[in-house]
Each structure stands twice: as structure tokens, then as C-alpha cells.
Design a protein that fits this description.
heterodimer, A: 226 residues, mainly alpha, 9 helices, 84% helix, B: 226 residues, Four Helix Bundle (Hemerythrin (Met), subunit A)
Chain lengths: 226, 226
């Protein structure tokens, strides 16, 4: 276990170093999120939604920004290995599960960094009142993990396809729609301070994340060694 | 060979007669259910078996995909592709029959009810499966990537069919497998529904067998041309 974590950590550090050199994923995710937030804030702002609709609509808008920002940058994790012809070397130097673990960690960290910057900005600009901040953090962590684990396996699939273009969004979004429903429901519940609603949504997110993790662990070697 | 063919012919005629009897029984043997507008409840004898067959087809596709990843036999890839296409067809039919029922009962063809939403997501997921198949040129790589995606897609089915409709309030009538685990249906209606489930399952098996044969011939022809 410790050996796996150390090796996956090494793949994560390698990815972080290359990302800091080029900043392709950081720029894509960050700029997409900030531009969308600016557009939403300018067109809707904090006062154009009726008070009763605010928890639901603002939760939905927040997660739509996060999901589409993820679509803009998370496909890079495997595509860049194929584009720079380093995938073969990575296959020789690391076990498939280690590569998967490192890439998953990288995608998760990138998503959580995005949320750390985006969510406070969103709360301030949109006047989004959240009654249970602790609950929101749990939803963001669990939702971010499930989003990362699903996009990691899809990114591995599209890296092996010949025409990648919009394929990442086409394959990822339908798989992520149940997650989108659960996290919007959970965020609405924490905004309203409903512990029961937040708990049931969080359980659904964690279950989906757990199932996706197990399935990814089993299937990733078939994609990576193809 | 000829005895197998004649047995197939007999089974085909039994299926034809069975479906005919079910159609007759749905309109003349089973009573219209109380609490529904006019004769609208009779659609249950077609809508539920169609939705069941769609789920069965996606399960067959998942099992064939698992088998492909173990055996790397193109026959399993044919089975997975055919089952997915039939699943997609039956999911579209379930959506159409559900919409007709929604128009009669709730006055609108589409209400974004959780069950309508779930089936839309399923349609999108399996449409994405075919988008992936179209994006990979190499047949073996296409087969293995599609197999992985098919398994990932099937993992979301329980969340879409069982979890999403229970998180949101739904207009949809109580399902056969409900939270109380009780069958709320008259005996005649139940008999016809069970008969219809058997008939539609038989129809799926027949269509699946024929479609697999056609797909194998199409691929063989394609290889001969190349």
C-alpha cells in the first residue's frame, strides 16, 4: 500500500512539474471558470433571482460552472502523454494502477484548487448564502473526487481514440449527469441548512465515487495496455 | 442444422402468437386500473416490458463487454454492440410510450420528471457509446475501449433507475418493485403484465439473435472488401 502511494505520488509530482512548466490545464480550467463566473455574475447577479429560488438555482449554476471548467482541462492528463510521446516510457516505468493513481490525484488536486478559488468568489459575487459551511466543504470534496475519478478513466479512453476533439465532453457529461443531480441537491440542502437532505445526497455521491473507483481500478489496465 | 432452423421457425411462431395474445389481453382481458384517466393505464402492459427489455439489453451489453475484455473475441464485441443498439432502441420506445402516458395523465408530453430525466440520461450515455465507436478506426482498439465504456455506462444504470427517482419527488406511478415491496395490482393485470414481460423478453432474444447474425455478415463482408 505504502509503495503504491509513493509511486502514485511520484507520477503526481511528475505531472505537477510538467503542468507548472506549461500551465495548460491550470489556464484552461481557471480562465474558463472565471470567464463563466463573470458572465453569470454580470447577467444574473445577486439580486435577479427570487429569494425562494436562490438555494436551488445558485447551487445548479455553481456546479455547472465547475463541471464545464473540468471538461475544459481534465482531458489533458492522458492526452499530453500521447501527444508528447511519453506514454510508452510511462508504461515501461510504472504499473498501470500507479499511473491511474497518480493521474487521479493530479486531477483531484487541480479540481480542488479550482474550487478553493472559485467557490468563495462565487459566494461573494452571487450573494450565495450557505447555512452549513462544513456540509458544503464535504459536498465539494466528495463531488470533486467523484468528478475526478470519472474524468480520469474517460481521459484515458479518449487518449487512445484517434479523433479526440469534443469526445471528452461527449463521453464524460452523460456519465456525470447523475453526479450533477446529487451534488446540486446536496449543495441546495447545505445552503438551506437541511442536514437530512445533505446526508442523503452525500451518501449518493460517495456511493457513486466508490463504485467508479472500483470499476476504474479493474478496467484501467485494459485501457492503458491497449 | 435444418432441425435447428425448424425449431427456430416454431419458436418464432410461438412468439408471434404469444405477443398477439398479450395485445388482445391488454385491451380485453385486463381491466382498466382505478385512479387513471380513461384507458391510459393499459399502456403499462407495453411501457414496463419495453423499459425492462432496455435494461436487459444494457445488462447483456455489459456482460458481453466483460467477456470481450477476458477473451478478446470479436464475437463478444458484436454481441455488446448489438445489445447496446437494441437497448438504445427500446429506451427510445420506453420514452415515447412514457410521453404518451404523460400527455394523457398530466397534460404534457414532457415534464422533466425524475424518471423522464433518468431515461434521457441513459439515452445520452448509450449515444455516447456509439460516438466512441465511431471515433476509433482500429477494430480491436475500438472493441476494447467500447467494452470499457459500456461497463462504465452500466454502472450508472442503478443510480439512474433507483437512486435519482427517489431523491426527487416524482409524478410517476409507483413502480412494480416499490419501497414497500408490495404488488399494488389486480390479479388479471398482473397476469397480463407478467405475460407481456415474457413476450417482450422473447422478442428481444429473437431480435438480438438476428441482429448479431447480420452484424457478423456485415463485418465479414467489410473485411473481404478491405
Amino acid at each position: 500500500m505504502w509503495r503504491f502511494l509513493a509511486e502514485a505520488g511520484a507520477v503526481f509530482v511528475k505531472d505537477l512539474r510538467t503542468e507548472l512548466r506549461t500551465r495548460v490545464a491550470f489556464n484552461a480550467l481557471g480562465l474558463f471558470a472565471i470567464t463563466t463566473l463573470a458572465a453569470i455574475s454580470y447577467t444574473i447577479g445577486p439580486y435577479r433571482i427570487a429569494q425562494a429560488d436562490r438555494p436551488y438555482l445558485l447551487s445548479a449554476l455553481l456546479w455547472i460552472v465547475i463541471f464545464f471548467a473540468a471538461m475544459a482541462g481534465l482531458d489533458r492528463s492522458f492526452v499530453k502523454e500521447e501527444d508528447s510521446h511519453t506514454a510508452a516510457l510511462l508504461r515501461l516505468s510504472a504499473r498501470p494502477l500507479v499511473v491511474w493513481g497518480g493521474k487521479l490525484l493530479f486531477n483531484f488536486v487541480v479540481l480542488e484548487l479550482l474550487m478553493v478559488i472559485l467557490v468563495p468568489l462565487y459566494v461573494v459575487l452571487m450573494g450565495f448564502q450557505v447555512l452549513s459551511v462544513g456540509g458544503l466543504i464535504w459536498i465539494l470534496l466528495a463531488g470533486g473526487y467523484t468528478l475526478a475519478v470519472t474524468t480520469t478513466i474517460v481521459a484515458a479512453i479518449i487518449a487512445r481514440a484517434s479523433s479526440r476533439g469534443a469526445l471528452f465532453s461527449v463521453l464524460s457529461l452523460p456519465l456525470l449527469l447523475p453526479l450533477l443531480i446529487f451534488v446540486i441537491q446536496g449543495t441546495r440542502a447545505v445552503a438551506e441548512g437541511s442536514a437530512q437532505g445533505a446526508g442523503s445526497a452525500l451518501r449518493a455521491v460517495v456511493s457513486l465515487g466508490g463504485v467508479m473507483t472500483i470499476v476504474s481500478i479493474v478496467l484501467f489496465p485494459a485501457v492503458w495496455n491497449e | 442444422m435444418s432441425s435447428r432452423r425448424s425449431r427456430g421457425e416454431v419458436l418464432k411462431w410461438i412468439l408471434f402468437v404469444w405477443i398477439g395474445v398479450i395485445i388482445w389481453a391488454a385491451f380485453f382481458y385486463a381491466p382498466a386500473a382505478a385512479g387513471f384517466k380513461g384507458q391510459s393505464s393499459r399502456i403499462v402492459f407495453f411501457h414496463v416490458p419495453i423499459a425492462w427489455v432496455a435494461t436487459l439489453a444494457f445488462l447483456v451489453s455489459c456482460v458481453a463487454s466483460i467477456r470481450y475484455l477476458r477473451t478478446r473475441s470479436m464475437a463478444d464485441d458484436v454481441r455488446a454492440e448489438v445489445a447496446s443498439s437494441l437497448g438504445l432502441l427500446f429506451a427510445i420506445l420506453a420514452t415515447v410510450t412514457g410521453s404518451i402516458f404523460a400527455r394523457i395523465m398530466w397534460g404534457s408530453y414532457w415534464n422533466w420528471d425524475p424518471r423522464e430525466t433518468s431515461i434521457t440520461f441513459l439515452l445520452l450515455i448509450y449515444a455516447a457509446y456509439f460516438a466512441l465507436r465511431a471515433a476509433v478506426a482500429d477494430p480491436e482498439r475500438r472493441a476494447s475501449l467500447a467494452a470499457v465504456y459500456s461497463i462504465l455506462a452500466f454502472v450508472t444504470v442503478p443510480f439512474l433507475v433507483f437512486v435519482v427517482p427517489r431523491i426527487y419527488w416524482s409524478l410517476h406511478p409507483d413502480t412494480i418493485i416499490n419501497a414497500q415491496a408490495k404488488i399494488k395490482m389486480g390479479s388479471r393485470m398482473f397476469e397480463v403484465l407478467m405475460g407481456s414481460l415474457v413476450g417482450f423478453s422473447g422478442l428481444f432474444v429473437w431480435l438480438y439473435t438476428v441482429a448479431c447474425r447480420i452484424e457478423r455478415i456485415r463485418r465479414r463482408r467489410q473485411q473481404e472488401v478491405l
